[in-house]
Specification:
Alpha-D-Glucose-1,6-Bisphosphate, Chain A, domain 4; 7 strands; 148 residues; 31% helix; alpha+beta; seven-stranded antiparallel β-sheet
């Protein structure tokens, strides 16, 4: 999932890594519980919780980070484990922000593949779209207000 935003890479990255603002734009996130380590650098981790109908407690541990380029996270909750990648690429007067999630369902049964194909993938894609759309709005608002 990618979108072009009218901001320089460094502003998009600063907004993305500002965990204080995540409840505004990360889909399902209710509150950040804890930030461990030197966020957003490798080995650091963010623990957050969703609202009542969401994913519960989610852990996002940094596996790789390159300033002005992107970050790869090891993501885990009660249902899934996976890798989420965000990249920032300059594009004309703006930035292309791309977000991807590769996950596996932890508790498997003979129907897991079909359920994933018919329901879970669609929900995950919708969540990524929502996050990206809300991030674009937040980045624009933070640029207008002069906040990072």
């Amino acid at each position: 999932m990618a979108q072009v935003l009218p901001a320089p890479v460094h502003e998009a990255e600063k907004c993305w890594y500002n965990t204080d603002r995540w409840p505004v734009w990360v889909d399902q996130l209710d509150r950040v519980v804890e930030v461990r380590g030197d966020w957003p650098k490798p080995g650091s981790e963010v623990i957050w919780v969703s609202g009542p109908a969401g994913r519960g407690q989610v852990s996002e541990r940094v596996a790789a980070y390159e300033p002005r380029s992107g970050q790869t996270l090891e993501v885990e909750d009660d249902s899934i484990a996976g890798r989420q990648t965000v990249t920032f690429s300059p594009s004309g007067e703006g930035v292309v922000v791309e977000l991807a999630l590769d996950y596996r369902i932890k508790r498997r049964n003979p129907f897991t593949g079909l359920i994933d194909l018919l329901f879970i993938r669609r929900l995950m894609a919708g969540s990524l779209r929502s996050t990206m759309g809300r991030f674009g709005t937040e980045l624009e608002a933070s640029r207008s207000a002069g906040v990072g």
